[in-house]
Amino acid sequence: MTTDIAGARSSLADTLSDGSRDAAPSHQTSPAPFVGQPQSVEETGLDFSMILDLVVKSIYFSGRPAARQIAAQLALSFPVVDEVFAFLKREQLAEVVGSSGMGEQLYQYSLSQKGMEKAEEALARNQYVGPAPVPFEVYLDVLKRQSIRAMRVSPGVVDQALSHLVLDEEVAAALGPAVNSARSMLLYGGSGNGKSTITSAIGRMLPGEVLIPYAVDINGTIVKVFDPRVHQEIPIEKQVERRQAEGPPAAGPERRRDRRWVVSRRPMITAGGELTLKDLELRYSPQSQFYIAPLQWKANSGLLIVDDFGRQMIQPKELLNRWIVPMEERVDHLSLHTGDMVEVPFDVLLIFSTNLHPSQLGDEAFFRRIRHKIEIPDPSREQFVEILARVCQHQEIPLDPDAALYLVDHYYDRISRGFKGCHPRDIVELVVDICNYHGEPPAFTRRHLDAACHSYFVALQSEEATRMKAQFGGLAA
Questions:
Q1: pLDDT reported for residue 177
Q2: Of the candidates 463, 385, 461, 395, which has an alpha carbon nearest to the alpha carbon of residue 434?
Q3: How many domains does the chain have?
Q4: Angle (nearest 5°) at CA 142 between 302 and 49
Q5: How far apart are CA 197 and CA 351, in angstroms?
Q6: Secondary structure (3-state) at 418
Q7: Which domain holds residue 105?
Q8: 98 and 166 share a domain?
Q9: What local confidence, expressed as pLDDT, does residue 460 receive?
Q10: What is the CATH number of the domain that holds 72?
Q11: Range 410-424 average pLDDT
């Protein structure tokens, strides 16, 4: 290999001197839509019988709860539950058995024998106990007001979100329009080149707060939507507070948010190789007799990522066929166990991420359904070195340009190994592990690099042997 070592060393030094721009984009602050806290049963939009069932089930499981405790558990204001308590006392279903302080909100209630029978009847209908659901029609209205289709990301936001990554200009230029379309995209390319990191950056591009209901009522059927495992609730002190900010001012005291909704970041949900078609349908339990929303419903107003696309237990064609109508019409059709169908908005930015070549996944008609296709290539030599510089700066390790050139020449160029975006991070972390073991300050030296690379590239000898065999076998022929 003929290389101008001095020139290469100078180029490496120039690249390293640029430093790392480890910037995290600031989240755009736009408040979630305002939904006022209901002050009566009628304002909740729910049938009185549903709230009655929730109250008696809560008392049944709580023993002698205070009225305030029940209101908090159901995420309703005290005036709403007070209407129900008045009914319970009038019908002799419950009685006041004590108080934990002054005022009606601290009255403690217990069910009578008649009330216990009422609770068992309610549990026979369904065993849901928790925040009261919101009417499906209200949920649809809120989705429209916070739709991801109304989201706009500017080139500045995209650049800021990607500033900590080393990407080809073509990739960065393609990502902005794809995100702004709020439709679907395919990220493909070799493993270890940052597809997962890019999807995380896309999540940071999505602006503002959204409302996620704890549960939704569809004609008496309850569907749980909020999932603390995938929804990132914003602490109340960090919320962009909005009270009566939309519509004409209401008479009377200022109204707070409806507590049946969680103020959250835009959802960012990832499904990997474990994804099945069952995960895309409503999950019903005959014992509890209520539903759990599927992944794409939980992802509404946000981002849904199908990671390792093509490695699921289902075929790529099956998955795409399941979503053809939702992707094109923005509406998903879900079946209840009764046979009835529910139309739910499909308001997601859908991302398929794979390290398989597109030819292994489907044909032209298959990919026509996916709006944007973006290849994430292996980094160039210059990009590899810049990534290495940023990783070392993050680890606070001085990076010797000679050692960096040695790494590139000895462990990549000589054996024709391709560069991968994850290699610098992994190799530097191995160097840190080795130095820590020996009680030495981390140092990016040839000795430590050799130890780290021999540990990391487990197939190094076989790769070199294969290359040499191919080279000399070709000469012999």
A1: 94
A2: 395
A3: 3
A4: 120
A5: 13
A6: coil
A7: 47-128
A8: no
A9: 42
A10: 1.10.10.10
A11: 94
